[in-house]
From TrEMBL:
Chief location of this protein within or outside the cell: membrane
Organism of origin: Methyloversatilis universalis (strain ATCC BAA-1314 / DSM 25237 / JCM 13912 / CCUG 52030 / FAM5)
InterPro entries the UniProt entry points to: MFS, MFS_dom, MFS_trans_sf, NO3_transporter
Protein name, per record: Nitrate transporter
Topological category with respect to the lipid bilayer: Multi-pass membrane protein
Gene3D superfamilies per UniProt: MFS general substrate transporter like domains
Family, per entry: Belongs to the major facilitator superfamily. Nitrate/nitrite porter (TC 2.A.1.8) family.
Residue ranges occupied by any Major facilitator superfamily (MFS) profile domain in the UniProt entry: 13-391
A GO term from the CC aspect: membrane
Organism phylogeny: Bacteria, Pseudomonadati, Pseudomonadota, Betaproteobacteria, Nitrosomonadales
Length: 404
């Protein structure tokens, strides 16, 4: 990639603001996961309740992404993002001041944290609309590297909870969240060429296109695997290997950093060799690692190595999917980001909750991991079935300068 050409092609301050906004939003979106061990101890939760508690923000974020996708096209990305972030800041402030005293209250907070997960539907269109087709994978990879916020939560939240108490972590999270919100308001700009707003009924017309459903399925595996693991691994390492919450958080952060930091690499690789080829390879790798870890490796460090491999594949797969989406649905990028992001969150909800249920019912996490590995295989088969059509229709060389 020509770095100078890329810098001239779009608006770098907005790309930077989109990354920061996404990063801090994702940090608080999965906050209940790294705090899950301490919360579960104080609220006396079962394995299934722990799994469901960390999965609820993921599901809420998935459903709210559709709403945020509509708001992005009606209000423009910057204003839509500001509204969502104000809601998240308010919810964390209430949780900090009044505390969480029951399982139901934890679930309610998780619903509000879903607005942070919906930041996905803001950050990507905010960045995407500034860049031409040949730079979409790189631009969306950089903005999407805000996934790394999930690692920040795993890295710092358990340790801070041990020192200050887990309720006060909600207040501490407000400090960087508000600081980045101010930066976002100051430097982010909406692209001058934005598609005109459509009615909600017109958005639903996208669902009549079978390619929309394929993209939703593909992302439910790549992003669903990433965020499902990011939400669950602190509890997994604590339960499976008896690690202290702080140590389990460090192990989780290592895995999540791997998956989040390679998202731009996945987008850039897709720009170079094509999104279909990149995504196909990532599904094979992810399925192999998830199947391998399902057998319950004897040492925690072995599990970390396998999870890192899986997260690398899933993270690069995220970048590859969003190298393809803008090529097929450029004029509907706002609603498609919402739809595809929603599907990704649903996949994450399934994985996080199924791991808890699997542990409760069978005494092992194996079932949850095996089924998700099979979903990656199914996605590979599906991608193989559509690749020829994609490359000869909307991905044909005479219609786009991007590699498909």
């Amino acid at each position: 990639m020509d770095r100078k050409a890329f810098l001239k092609a779009g608006h770098t301050p907005t790309l930077f603001a989109a990354f920061l906004y996404f990063d801090l939003a994702f940090m608080v979106w999965v906050l209940l996961g790294p705090l899950g061990v301490q919360i579960a101890q104080d609220l006396h939760l079962t394995h299934a309740q722990k799994g469901f508690m960390v999965a609820v923000p993921v599901l809420a974020g998935a459903l709210l992404r559709m709403l945020m996708g509509v708001l992005v096209d009606h209000l423009q990305p910057k204003k839509a993002g500001a509204i969502g972030q104000i809601i998240v800041i308010g919810a964390l402030f209430v949780a900090w001041q009044f505390g969480i005293h029951s399982y139901e209250q934890a679930l309610l907070l998780g619903c509000f944290l879903g607005f942070a997960g919906a930041a996905f539907a803001v950050a990507l269109p905010l960045a995407s609309r500034w860049y031409p087709p040949e730079h979409q994978g790189t631009a969306l990879g950089i903005a999407g590297a805000g996934n790394s916020g999930t690692a920040l939560a795993a890295l710092f939240a358990p340790g801070l909870a041990m020192v200050f108490g887990w309720t006060n972590v909600f207040g501490l999270a407000l400090i960087p969240l508000v600081a980045v919100f101010i930066v976002y308001l100051l430097v982010a700009k909406d692209a001058p060429e934005c598609p005109p707003p459509k009615t909600f009924a017109e958005y639903l017309k996208v669902l009549k296109d079978r390619d929309a459903w394929w993209f939703m399925f593909f992302y439910s595996v790549t992003f669903g695997g990433f965020v499902g693991l990011a939400s669950s691994l602190t509890i997994y390492f604590n339960t499976q290997y008896g690690l202290e919450p702080k140590t389990a958080g460090y192990f989780t952060a290592a895995c999540v950093f791997a998956g989040s930091l390679v998202r731009p690499i996945g987008g850039n690789l897709a720009d170079r060799i094509g999104g279909i080829r990149t995504l196909s390879a990532m599904y094979v790798i992810a399925a192999a690692f998830l199947f391998g870890v399902s057998f319950g490796l004897p040492q925690a460090w072995m599990a970390v190595m396998v999870f890192v491999g899986a997260m690398l594949a899933l993270g690069m797969g995220n970048g590859a999917v969003f190298q393809l989406v803008p090529q097929r649905f450029r004029r509907e990028i706002g609603v498609m980001t919402g739809l595809v992001g929603m599907a990704g969150g649903v996949g994450g909800f399934y994985l996080a909750s199924s791991l808890g249920w699997s542990r409760e019912v069978t005494g092992s996490y194996q079932g949850g991991f095996v089924v998700f590995a099979l979903l990656a295989v199914a996605a590979l088969i599906g991608l193989s079935s559509v690749k020829n059509r994609w490359r000869t229709t909307w991905g044909a060389a005479h219609l786009t300068s991007a590699r498909i």
